[in-house]
Design brief:
Arc Repressor Mutant, subunit A, 2 domains, two-stranded antiparallel sheet, disordered C terminus
C-alpha cells in the first residue's frame, strides 16, 4: 500500500495515515477483506514511529473500517459495498460536516467554491452522477448575497 504523507504538514501524521486509508477504501483500492501492512512495516515504509501508525489504525478500528487481530493483522472490515452505515456514524458524520462547512464559511470561502469542491470529491470517490445534480441552495441563501448565486 502506497501512502503519501507530509511529515512536516499541519495535519498530524496518524491522521494523515487514517485519511489516506479511508480514501483508498472509498476509491476501491482497498476493498473489504483486504489486508493492510503491519503497523511496524508501514512505520518503516513511512519512516515514522510504529505507535503513530498504530494510532491511525486504532482510529479506523473505532470507526468500524478496520478489524485488528493478532494473527490476521489489520484487515479492511467494510467498504462502500458493505451495506448501510451504522446510525451512530451517520450522526457523527453530519456533525463533522456541519463543522467543516462552518470553518469554510468563517474563512470567507464562497459557496460556489464549496459546492465545486464537494462535487470534485464526490467524483473522486465514484458517487453516482445523479448525486452530483444537487439542486442548489434555497432562494433565501441566494438572496442573502453569500456567494451562492448562480449555483446549478
Amino acid at each position: 500500500m502506497l501512502l503519501s504523507i507530509e511529515p512536516d504538514g499541519p495535519v498530524p501524521i496518524y491522521q494523515q495515515i487514517r485519511d489516506r486509508i479511508v480514501e483508498a477504501i472509498a476509491g476501491g483500492r482497498q476493498p473489504a477483506g483486504s489486508a493492510l501492512p503491519s503497523t511496524r512495516q508501514l512505520a518503516v515504509d513511512l519512516g515514522v514511529n510504529f505507535h503513530t501508525v498504530n494510532k491511525g489504525y486504532d482510529l479506523l478500528r473505532q470507526e468500524g473500517l478496520l478489524r485488528l487481530g493478532r494473527k490476521s493483522g489489520a484487515v479492511v472490515r467494510r467498504d462502500a459495498a458493505s451495506g448501510p452505515p451504522d446510525p451512530g456514524w451517520v450522526q457523527d458524520w453530519t456533525s463533522r460536516l456541519h463543522t467543516l462547512l462552518a470553518e469554510a464559511a468563517a474563512q470567507g470561502m464562497p459557496a460556489t467554491d464549496i459546492v465545486r469542491g464537494c462535487r470534485a470529491a464526490m467524483t473522486d470517490f465514484a458517487f453516482p452522477a445523479a448525486a452530483l445534480d444537487w439542486p442548489g441552495p434555497s432562494a433565501t441563501a441566494a438572496e442573502a448575497g453569500n456567494g451562492s448565486e448562480g449555483l446549478p
